[in-house]
Amino acid sequence: MNKLLRWKKWLAATVVVLCVLAAIAWHQARSLKASQHYATISLLIPDSMAANAPEVQIWRQAARERGVLLMPLAISEWMRGIHYGAPAALQAVILPDTFHRNISDAAVQTLIDVVHAGGQAMVVQDGGMLDERGYYGKGTARLSDMLGVRYGDYDTYRDQLSDYEEIRGAPATMEKLGIPPGRYLDAKAAAKLTAIGPEELAADEPGFPSFIAGYTKDSQRFTVLKTDRPQSGARVLLQSSNGDVVASVNRWGKGQAMFVNMPLTYLLQRTDGIFLHGFLAYFAQQLVQQPALLASPDGIGALVLNWHNDDGRAIGFLHQLQDAGIFDHGHQSLHFTAGPDVNKPGDGLGMDLDYNEDAQQMIQMLLSQGHSIGNHGGWIHNYFGEKATDDNADDFLPFLDLNNASVTKANHGLQPQEYSAPNGNTPLWTYDWMAEHGVQAFYTVANVGMPPTRLWLGSRQVNQSWAFPVLTYGQIASAEEASFQKMPMAEFGQWLQQVARFIEHTRSIRLSYFHPIGAVDYLPAVKAYVDSMQACADRKQCQFISMTEAADFLSRREQVQWTITADGGNELLSASHSRTLESMAWTIPKTKYDAVQVRTGQAQVQATDEGWLVRVQDGKALSLELHRQP
User: Fold this and answer.
1) Residue 276 pLDDT more than 60?
2) Which GO terms describe its biological process (predicted)?
3) Segment (H or E) for 357
4) How far apart are CA 222 and CA 199, in angstroms?
5) Are 94 and 75 in contact (CB under 8 A)?
6) Phi-psi region for residue 139, left (φ > 0), alpha (ψ -120 to 50) or beta?
7) Cα–Cα distance for residue pair 367/475, rounded to 1 Å
8) For residue 45, which of 456, 54, 36 has the smallest C-alpha distance?
9) Helix, strand, or coil here: 181?
10) Tens of pLDDT along 554-610?
C-alpha cells in the first residue's frame, strides 16, 4: 500500500514538473517568435498596456497609412525573445514617447546590446527616460551613449529639462520626412509669414536653413529636450533654434540608433501627425530598409484640387475658370454651400442653389467632366463657420441637412460623399453627422501638409471617413489668403510649382484648395500649377484624383494583407486582398535588394533611381522574390 502511494506521488510530481517544463518551453517559443517577426518593426509597449490601447492604435494606424510593417510587443516579451536567441541583427524596434517613459535598467541594457550587435532602434524623446519606479537616473539619460546625444540630465536642469522651440532643417531632409514645401519655409518667407523672431531668422545655420511652420501667423514651437551639440558621431537631421538636437542618427557598433526629440504621439493626438508619420517612414525606409506599400494608385503622385464655393458670386468665377480650361484636367472635387444667405439669415447673398439655374447648369457641366460634387458645410457659409460650436448642435444640424438635400438634388439625386467645413470649423457633432450620411472624405485644417489620414482627436479616432489635410504656405492655404498678405503672383506660383514637384517625387496624395474668386485673381499661377501637373500626368508620373476616388482607393488599400518572410538567402514578399490588388504598388530599396522577380500574380517591376517599383495589374494574390544584395 505504501509503495503504491509513493508511486502515485512520484507520478504526480513528474507530471507537475513536465507541465512546468512544457509551460516554460511554450513561453520561450512564444517570446522568441514574437521577438523575431521577420522584417517587421516592433513597437515596444509597457507590459501593462493592451495592444488595442488608443496610443498603440495611433502607431499601428500610422504604419498602415505609411505602408510600414509594424507590430506592438510588450517589452518584457521582447527581452525574453532576445535572451532566448532571437537574432539581434534582425531587430528593428521603436521606443515611443509619452506612454513608455518607464523601463528597467535591464531593458535599457538589452536595447543597447541589440543595437551594438547590428539592430536598429528609434527612441522618441522621453521614451525610456525614467526607471521602473519613475525616477530620473544620475547624469544624462541612460540611452545617451547609444544615441550619440547627451540629453535628459535632470541633475543639471531640474524643471528646465526642456524648452519650447522652433525647429530647423534642410529642405532635402524635410522632404524625406514627408514635410512638403510651405510646411517648411526659408528665412525670407518665414520673416513675412510667421512671428519667428529676427534673432532666430538671422542665425547663420547653413546646414539648417529652413523653419517648420504651421497654418498660423504665430511661430510654431515644440517641446524639445535640452541636449548637447554633438561634434562628431551622430548625424543631425533637425535641430532647434537654440541648437538642441531634434533628430539624429548614430552608428552604434554594427547597428544604428535614431533619436527623435519631439513628442510624436502627443502631437498626433492633437492633430499634428505629420511628424509621427514622417519619422516612422524615415526609420522604416532609411534605416531598416523595409519595402513600403505606397499610398497612391499605382504608386503615382496624385493631386486633389478641392474648390470651395461659398456664395452666389462663386458661379461667375467658375465660368471664368471653365473658360481658362482649369476643369479640363482630371477629376476634381467641388463643394457647394447651397443656401440663399451668407453672413446671416435673410441677407440674400448666398447661392440659393435650389432656385439658381446658372448654378445648377454649372454643376451639370462639372459632373459631365467627371468631377465630384460635395457639401461645403452648412447652408449659410459665414454664419455657420462663425457660430457653430460643440455645444449648439441642435441649432446648426438642420443647416447641414438643408445643404445636403439641396446639393443631393443637383447631384442627380446622389448624396455627396465629400464634405468641407465653412471656415474650417468642424464641431465634434459634425463627424457624427458625416458618418450617418455616408461621407467618405472631408477637407480638414488639422494635420496640415499630410496625405489623407484617419483623424485622431485625442484618443478618439474618426475612422468612418478619410481626412484630407490642406497644403499650406505658412499662414496661407488659398489664393485669396495670398491676396490678403499682398503676396506677389510669382511667389505664390513658385510655391505651387514646388508642391507639384514634391507630389511627383514622393508618390503621395496631397490636397490643394481654392475659392474661385481667389483662383481668378491668381489665375496665371493657378493655371501654371494645373499645367505642370498635367505635363507630369502626360509622363505618367502624376495624376489628378477626386477626394472620393482617393478615399475609395485608400479604404481598399487598408484591406491588403502582406508579409515578408525568409526564402533561403533571399526574401519573399506575399500580399493578398479579398477582392483585388489592382493599382497597389510597393517600392523596394536597391540598397538592400539587387533584383525583384514576380513569382506569382500579375505585376510589373520597374527600376527607379532609389529602388524597385512594383505595380499590381490585377488578381487577389501576389508573391515577389526579393534578391538580397551580396
Assistant:
1) yes
2) carbohydrate metabolic process
3) helix 357-368
4) 18
5) no
6) left
7) 32
8) 54
9) strand
10) 999 999 999 999 999 999 999 999 999 999 999 999 999 999 999 999 999 999 998
What is the C-alpha separation between 141 and 99, in angstroms, rounded?
Answer: 17
Rounded to whole angstroms, what are the CA distances from 323 to 520, 525, 534, 554? 11, 16, 17, 33
d(CA 469, CA 451): 7
Digit-coded pLDDT (tens) for 316-362 = 999 999 999 999 999 999 999 999 999 999 999 999 999 999 999 99
Q: How many CB atoms lie within 10 A of CB 144?
A: 17
DSSP 25-74: HHHHHHHHHHHT-TT-EEEEE-TTS-TTSHHHHHHHHHHHHHT--EEEEE
Under the banding of pLDDT at 50, 70 and 90, the label for residue 428 is: very high
What are the residues facing 236 on neighbouring strands?
Answer: 248
In the chain, count of helices (H) and strands (E)? 21, 27
- DSSP string covering 111-175: HHHHHHTT-EEEEETTTT-B-TTS---SSS-TTHHHHT--B--HHHHGGGSEEEE-EEE-HHHHH
For residue 590, count CB atoms less than 10 angstroms from its CB and return exposed for 0-12, middle for 13-18, buried for 19 or more: middle
> Exposed (0-12), middle (13-18) or buried (19+): which is 521, by Cβ within 10 Å?
middle
| Under 8 Å between Cβ of 618 and 598 | no
* Percent of residues, the chain, with pLDDT higher than 70: 94
CA distance 255 to 89: 8
* Domains detected in the chain: 36-166+221-293 (3.40.50.880), 172-214 (no CATH), 297-553 (3.20.20.370), 559-628 (2.60.40)
At residue 272, what are phi and psi to the nearest 5 degrees?
A: -135, 70
31 has a pLDDT exceeding 50: no
Grid cell listed for 348: 440674400
Q: Confirm if 545 and 511 have CB atoms less than 8 A apart.
A: no
